[in-house]
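so my prof wants the structure for this chain in the tokens format not the other one, which i didnt know existed until like an hour ago. anyway here's the sequence
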Amino acid sequence: MFKALLITKNESAQAVAVTDIDESQLPEAAVTVKVEYSTINYKDGLAITGKSPVVRKFPMVPGIDFAGVVESSSSDQWKAGDRVVLNGWGVGEGHWGGLSQKARVNPGWLIRLPEAFSAKQAMAIGTAGYTAALCVDALEKHGVTPAQGEILVTGATGGVGSVAIALLSKLGFKVVASSGKASEADYLKALGAAEIIDRASLSAPGKPMQKERWAAVVDCVGSATLANALAQTRYGGYVAACGLAQGMDLPGSVAPFILRGVSLLGIDSVMAPLPPREAAWKRLARDLDASALESISTLVGLGNAAAAGADIVAGKIRGRVVVDVNA
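here's what i got, hopefully its the right format
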């Protein structure tokens, strides 16, 4: 038996509770992992609260990330004792996830935990930080350099935004952070933000073409914020879109694309193939100051994971929430 956060649902409502699970209840897959740490992402918050139909079948163990040690494997890709990390692949949505002391998953969903990080540090990064690295990789692949000008990061105090600021500033970019939390200015500057702007300046509907400012953008918010960011991006600039905290809609115009040659880069972290995953984690191991993870993250036990999920949806969380599933 082991403990897991389990979401159940009846005709009227869903319930979430830490539950004792028998190992025989785990889904069928080739690799069983003893989970050490998991984390709470925005998507996990949506699953836990039921605010969005993230969970595709019940009962479900949420948690789109975990890090731990292989306990047993019938695949030649992994052996007992291997240290691994998992991000995405529909885990926590359609397949039992990481907010559990054990997980059983397909071997192709795992990557080797970089030696630079402990399991706890890997979950301080989690899907949010891995997504930030995918965004930075995409901008770099398209030739964006610090000499071209400022980079805007929206949703800056969230997990993706926090890691994106740390990575971009380390690479020499002048990063402008958009946030609705004026009290977090010192936190954002400590991560490397050169300037903080109020998210209200971007979140209301705006003109289809606005004064050019950004060489590139990492957008975690979507909706009007993304539309305004596109409208303010300089000629030939790039916008990496990876989130929907404000909304899934894009109430904008084709004008930035056809009049300024702006490119919108869609960043998917869930089903990304192995090579970009490994490249993103390689970047994190190389360019992310591990000491920054302490200021970015908060540690909770499994029993407090549901409350943390509600808080992240309510916008009360700064940075990352790491879950010690064995506490």
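also thought this was worth mentioning. Residues 37 and 324 are 5 Å apart (CA to CA).
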